[in-house]
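Tokens as discussed.
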């Protein structure tokens, strides 16, 4: 029998993406959110440091939302804003969006100056938002940062 060895959280979330029921009783968005939040808590809240700020710069609004609410905005900008209101298709897309965002974020945060760049981009976003007077309205004028995807392995 081959043993599964997980060396990083990127590997763990990749394994979760491939075989969610190996790790969770249900493969829905709320279960995956709870799993990720548990991983973060198991690391004294440091695993997701900068994740919400990174998501805000991608969404372009929602600085008042929790990270999983921002993932829902990326999944369905005009759709349900609550995990309870999602149909099965939207739920599956939200799980995929979350896992892709985590992979992209963790790849960036592992770079030499990744966390500094995340916070600098968030501050630039805050400054641009104030300049355009869009606040958290989600108006078309709200700035978004086009983060490059990490190189594929």
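Sequence:
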């Amino acid at each position: 029998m081959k043993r599964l060895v997980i060396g990083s959280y990127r590997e763990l979330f990749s394994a979760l993406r491939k075989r969610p029921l190996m790790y969770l009783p249900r493969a829905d968005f709320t279960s995956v959110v709870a799993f990720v939040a548990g991983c973060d808590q198991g690391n004294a809240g440091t695993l997701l440091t900068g994740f919400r700020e990174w998501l805000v710069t991608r969404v372009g609004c929602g600085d008042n939302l929790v990270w999983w609410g921002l993932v829902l905005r990326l999944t369905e900008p005009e759709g349900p804003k609550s995990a309870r209101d999602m149909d099965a298709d939207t739920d599956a897309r939200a799980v995929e969006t979350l896992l892709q965002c985590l992979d992209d974020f963790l790849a960036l945060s592992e770079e030499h100056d990744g966390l500094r760049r995340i916070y600098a981009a968030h501050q630039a976003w805050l400054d641009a938002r104030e300049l355009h007077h869009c606040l958290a309205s989600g108006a078309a004028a709200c700035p978004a940062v086009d983060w490059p995807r990490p190189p594929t392995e």
